[in-house]
């Protein structure tokens, strides 16, 4: 996350809708990835304070700004849409007259906006299914007493999330039940987006064979793999080969967990850099990952930069975890990076930053349905 500032000098944070210093309305422009104070113009339009461009770009506030979503994103004045990029991706919301659902939707949408920001920084395509059948849609659903259970998952670009995941007590219960170290709304969204971007960036591309050599063959029966995982658990040596227990369930889940981990690490380090936190003098010794952990040789500078990034996270994680323990809180980063995972993380990095390989349309039966 970037560090933002109001024209009055007050720091601004990504979820702000009002500056606490001067009272200005605050919003985020997803096209320029800029958050700042606004000035009112005629006809319900707004512009950024201090914007020197002529003519000044004008915006409308997202219709959901005053709704349960509490959205602080903007819509370009020339765009006829009522909703911003983030809100346009939400296809279904839970009934808001039900207990806790207003607060739940607020939390889910805030997490989604934060995750979309990190995808924008990676220049990944974010397109609504409203405009493209292969685009994204989010269904935020509640398990009702007289209805079927809602299972969090992904199917052909539709990400379904049980709104109870916004409740700390629900997450704690299932974290213990599934023997997880980490369970958050941001984590769920990043994981399920990993399934979507596997379809977008890997399926039917030149990356697919390399994917199989690293993660395994995704053509293995997915339902049977999950049944086996829930019945038997992960292999005994999972900590030496995977980033999480669930990553061992199936190659698709290994990819999704690794993808989420890549976004966790990148977003955390971007935030630390933006706020100029310096861990270079931290008195910790850690054996660094070397070039042998890379998925494939890169120009020396690029490979070294990736490894520096990973090795910095190892040190930062130790500092963050000790800080959390000082407050009696769980570890901020409850993961241990191993060499196979670093290699997979580098593969994700190469897929995101490399050329988009030409794709051939898959047969209908090849569309993945992935969950959990």
SSE sequence, one letter per element: EEEEEEEHEHEEEHHHHHHHHE
Tally the helices.
10
Structural classification: alpha+beta
The radius of gyration is 21 Å
Total beta-strand segments? 12
Shape: globular
Instruction: Report the mean per-residue pLDDT as an integer.
Output: 88
Domains counted in the coordinates: how many? 3
Considering DSSP H and I runs of 4 or more, what fraction of the residues is helical?
A: 25-40%
Strand content: 5-15%
* Major pleated sheet: 5 strands, mixed
Strand order of the largest sheet: 8-9-11-10-12
Low-confidence stretches: 355-371
Q: Termini, distance in Å?
A: 26 Å
Report what the structure shows.
- The chain has 372 residues and is α+β, with helices and mostly antiparallel strands.
- It has three domains: 1-83, no CATH class; 86-197 and 362-367; 206-355, no CATH class.
- It is built from ten helices and twelve strands.
- It has helices at residues 85-89, 101-121, 168-177, 185-201, 208-215, 222-232, 238-241, 251-274, 300-326, 339-353, and strands spanning 4-5, 11-12, 26-29, 34-40, 46-48, 59-61, 74-76, 90-92, 137-141, 153-155, 158-162, 369-371.
- The strands form four sheets. Strands 8-9-11-10-12 form a five-stranded mixed sheet. A three-stranded antiparallel sheet has the order 3-4-5, with no helix packed on it. A two-stranded antiparallel ribbon has the order 1-2.
- α2 links the parallel β8 and β9.
- It is globular.
- The protein starts with a strand and ends with a strand.
- The relative contact order is 0.09.
């Amino acid at each position: 996350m970037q560090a933002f500032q109001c024209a009055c000098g007050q720091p601004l944070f990504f979820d702000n809708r009002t500056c606490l210093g001067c009272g200005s309305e605050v919003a985020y422009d997803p096209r320029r990835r800029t958050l700042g104070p606004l000035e009112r113009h005629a006809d319900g339009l707004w512009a950024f304070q201090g914007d020197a461009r002529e003519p000044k770009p004008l915006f409308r506030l997202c219709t959901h700004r005053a709704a349960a979503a509490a959205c602080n994103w903007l819509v370009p004045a020339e765009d006829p849409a009522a909703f911003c990029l983030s809100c346009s991706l939400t296809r279904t919301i839970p009934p808001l007259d039900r207990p806790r659902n207003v607060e739940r939707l607020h939390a889910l949408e805030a997490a989604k906006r934060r995750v979309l920001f990190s995808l924008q920084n990676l220049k990944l395509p974010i397109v609504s299914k409203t405009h493209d059948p292969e685009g994204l849609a989010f269904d935020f659903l509640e398990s009702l007493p007289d209805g079927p259970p809602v299972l969090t998952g992904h199917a052909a670009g539709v990400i379904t999330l049980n709104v109870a995941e916004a409740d700390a007590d629900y997450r704690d219960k299932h974290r213990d039940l599934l023997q997880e170290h980490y369970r958050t709304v941001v984590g769920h969204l990043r994981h399920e987006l990993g399934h979507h971007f596997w379809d977008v960036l890997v399926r039917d591309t030149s990356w697919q064979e390399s994917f199989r050599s690293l993660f395994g063959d995704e053509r293995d029966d997915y339902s049977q793999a999950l049944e086996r995982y829930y019945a038997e658990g992960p292999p005994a040596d999972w900590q030496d080969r995977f980033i999480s227990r669930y990553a061992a369930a199936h190659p698709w889940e290994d990819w999704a967990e690794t993808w989420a981990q890549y976004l966790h690490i990148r977003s955390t380090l971007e935030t630390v850099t933006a706020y100029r936190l310096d861990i270079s003098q931290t008195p910790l010794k850690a054996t660094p990952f070397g070039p042998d952990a890379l998925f494939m040789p890169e120009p020396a500078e690029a490979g070294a930069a990736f490894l520096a990034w990973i090795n910095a996270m190892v040190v930062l994680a130790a500092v963050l975890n000790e800080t959390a323990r000082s407050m009696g809180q769980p570890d901020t980063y409850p993961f241990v990076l191993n060499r196979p995972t670093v290699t997979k993380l580098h593969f994700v990095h190469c897929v995101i930053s490399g050329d988009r390989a030409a794709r051939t349309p898959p047969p209908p039966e090849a569309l993945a349905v992935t969950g959990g």
